[in-house]
Amino acid sequence: MKKILITGSQGFIGSYLCAEFLAQGCKVIGIDNFSKYGKLTRPHDNNPNFKLYELDVQEIDTIYDEIKDVDYIIGCAAMIGGISYFHKYAYDLLATNERILASTFDLAIRLHKEQNLKRILVLSSSMIFEKTVVYPTPENQVTECPPPMSTYGFQKLACEYFCKGAYEQYGLPYTIIRPFNCVGIGEEDAIGEHEIKSGNIKLMMSHVLPDLINKTLKGQNPLRILGDGSQIRCYTNGKDIARGIRISLFSPKAINEDFNISTPTATTVLELAQEIWEILNPGAPFEYVSDEPYAYDVQKRIPDTSKAERLLGFKSEVALKESIKEVIEFMRRKK
């Protein structure tokens, strides 16, 4: 039975990963300090093959003896939020995430040298392609396009260099995964984000999908969106991202490789808003107004997904409309 250590196991993507690996019969050890959402419960918490250590990843060496027999590490923990985070926490996103990453790699290097750790998988971000002009964007653009302007994007790029450095010096095998715009259930309000109003409704800054659903459910009309709505994203369900990560982790073809894990289907924010509106207000006229966009609101994020399909046989499966309906039901249950 494979044993997986997942840092940030109680977060948005982390909870999808736990569900995916537990469903495949793996044992999962989670590390989380609940710094983003506060204390919460997840569906995987009571699984007999899951064990959670509530601590900061920077203190992970204190439980070395309890976790020394893991086969794989997935570095998912990070200080992360919506676009307001990029402005409010410009320094902390860089400094805190570097410390988290260094602690994770220190552990991985030690386990690879002293025990039987097979590989570390690190979650990077589509934000490393912040300055690209090539669409769809292939993985090799990481060395071709200018570095990101945001400290968050720059730090995610540093994640990838941690992988390369640990392999060059210590022979630690790695896989780099760049998820594109994860959507799904389980996202809560981040406790560190300040309140921003969009019209008369609090802006939900973590992702655009729950924000637009929340406004529509509360009857906002005309609907307010950030910018003019022409921003393009590829909204990928958390189940697809978790499946892609699981395939990558266990595939020998993914050793020392990087992958865009995403749907290839590009959707504008305005198209997303219209889709949500039609589901919740069928037949009603759709109107919107634009709020002032943020500086780091990247206009296009469109990945080339052919490498993951070619080497791993991975293709996304969950349609956007299915994801929208899933999040609507989740948010209705929370009310």
Q: How would you describe the overall organization of this protein?
A:
With 335 residues, the protein is an alpha/beta fold. It has a domain at 3-184 and 236-263 and 305-317: NAD(P)-binding Rossmann-like Domain (Rossmann fold). 37% of the residues lie in helices and 17% in strands. It has ten helices and 15 strands. The chain has helices spanning 12-23, 64-67, 83-88, 90-114, 151-170, 208-217, 238-250, 269-280, 306-312, 320-334, and strands at residues 3-7, 27-32, 50-54, 72-75, 119-123, 174-179, 182-183, 197-198, 201-202, 223-226, 232-233, 236-237, 257-261, 267-268, 288-291. The chain has a seven-stranded parallel beta sheet, sandwiched between helices. A hairpin with a 2-residue loop joins β8 (197-198) and β9. α1 crosses α7. The N and C termini lie far apart (39 Å).
String of helices and strands: EHEEHEHHEHEEEEHEEEHEEHEHH
Biggest sheet overview: 7 strands, parallel
**What's the CATH class label of the domain at 3-184 and 236-263 and 305-317?**
Alpha Beta
Beta-strand segment tally: 15
Low-confidence stretches: none
Beta percentage is: 15-25%
Short recap of the structure:
The chain is an alpha/beta fold and 335 residues long. 37% of the residues lie in helices and 17% in strands. The strands form five sheets. A seven-stranded parallel beta sheet has the order 3-2-1-4-5-6-13, sandwiched between helices. Strands 7-12 form a two-stranded parallel sheet. Strands 8-9 form a two-stranded antiparallel sheet.
Question: What keyword list fits this structure?
Answer:
335 residues; alpha/beta; Rossmann fold; 17% strand; globular
